[in-house]
Amino acid sequence: MKSKQMAKLLICLGIMLCIFLLKIYSNFIWRENSDKKHVEDVVHIWTIHGDTANVLRKVVKEYEGNNPNIEFDITVYKNEVYQAAVNNALMTDNLPDMFFWWGFSKLERLVDADMVYDITLELEKNQDIIEGGKDAFTFDGKTYALPLYGWTASLFCNQRIFEQNNLEYPTDYSQFVSTIRELQEKKEIPMITGAKEGWLSSLYYMSLVQGEETGKNIFQAVKNNALFLTPQFTDATYKLYNLVNLKAWQDNYLESDAYNEAYSFAQGNGAMLYYGSWATTLIEGESSKIKEDVAVIPFPNGNNMEGIGGFVDTFVINKEGVIPKKVDLINMYIDIMHEMSDLIVNEIGGGIPVYRDQRIDAQRFPLLYACWEINKNRKLYPAYDQIMSEELSAQYYLLLNELMAGEIAQEEFIEGLMLQ
């Protein structure tokens, strides 16, 4: 009896041992593809929420499929906290290998801190970018990033409202003011804006400055603040202050953010919207009620040679990260930037072409195409926060918010800029 029990016990132990060995063996043979045994490099990337993040994910997923030795770790931040996150990483030496950023003064600050990799040599054979496309990322003859896409500021007009009220599109400031008054008399909302975000209010001021004289003068004014006292800037400030007094925008414009007001315009609210070209993704989107009834015109400042926009959005390489250590990874950066740009411009209609082989499909994206056509032969100047120092930019936006709220007059606005 005891011998039978012992035999059964030995059989059970044998079966358990076989199962255990089979499990070990099968795990060894059939281990999941996600096992990191063959991964040589993990590239950490930070970016902002939105189309840029979505396109980045798509491109790197395809890249991982073709390059199993590379893995990407992507962190996405909300736009309003992103700059603070990068600034904190700068101070604590915790920057990722590659991260979304902007050109001109914002990038120059990182270059001066010796935090960004110089890709000049790797770009010597790459002549695919249009003239001026790398200006925002080039300092002292060295290039530190590639552009993702371009943007321009345009005035979007609700054709139905203009036609119903027998109005012409304005071409200069005087006509602009007259149009606003006529729309008000007809009980229409003349303009839609979101002054909660200073950059949208800044579009108005920058274009009014260009209406007085060349936009190039801002580069001198930020170096010599006394130039803000010249008629170009004081007259532009008066004109913006005049729009505030006219109550040109919807009642809640001070509490409204930019996205919601672009959406509101797309729903048929308001006769005009002054915005960046990326608003076309909303105005031409499936939820838009006016996508067949929108005209795109330049801001009516009388300056037909210049505009607001350019190429400033990019990703940069951390000089101390993993990418500069291998030529293949630097080439990876160049390839990914080009592929992302193609998707943004050609597939989702989110930006203006920056590579010579890119074209906007006029049938799929008629409004974006119109923005491009209006501005492609103009000299485009970047947003002021790309030109100003961080301190002056902060002061500028504070003063601009107060001016838009009617809390200060034009004299106080100019005096505030002089304090820097």
Helix and strand arrangement:
Elements: H1 2-29, E1 41-48, H2 51-66, E2 70-77, H3 79-92, E3 98-102, H4 105-112, E4 138-139, E5 142-143, E6 145-147, E7 151-158, H5 159-164, H6 173-185, E8 191-192, H7 198-212, H8 217-221, H9 231-246, H10 258-266, E9 272-276, H11 280-283, E10 294-297, E11 306-310, E12 313-317, H12 327-347, H13 366-375, E13 379-381, H14 384-387, H15 390-404, H16 410-418
Parallel strand pairs: 1-2, 1-3, 8-9, 11-13
Antiparallel strand pairs: 3-12, 4-5, 6-12, 7-9, 7-10, 7-11
Measured as a percent range, the helix fraction is 40-55%
> What general form does the structure show?
globular
Class based on secondary structure composition and strand pairing: alpha/beta
List segments where confidence is low: pLDDT < 50 over at least 5 consecutive residues: 17-37
Hey, roughly how much beta strand do the residues contain?
Answer: 5-15%
Give the H and E element order: HEHEHEHEEEEHHEHHHHEHEEEHHEHHH
Instruction: Profile the largest sheet.
Output: 6 strands, mixed
Task: Give the number of DSSP strands.
Answer: 13
Mean pLDDT: 90
Oligomer: single chain
> What is the number of helices?
16
What's the end-to-end separation, in Å? 100 Å
Please give the radius of gyration in angstroms: 27 Å
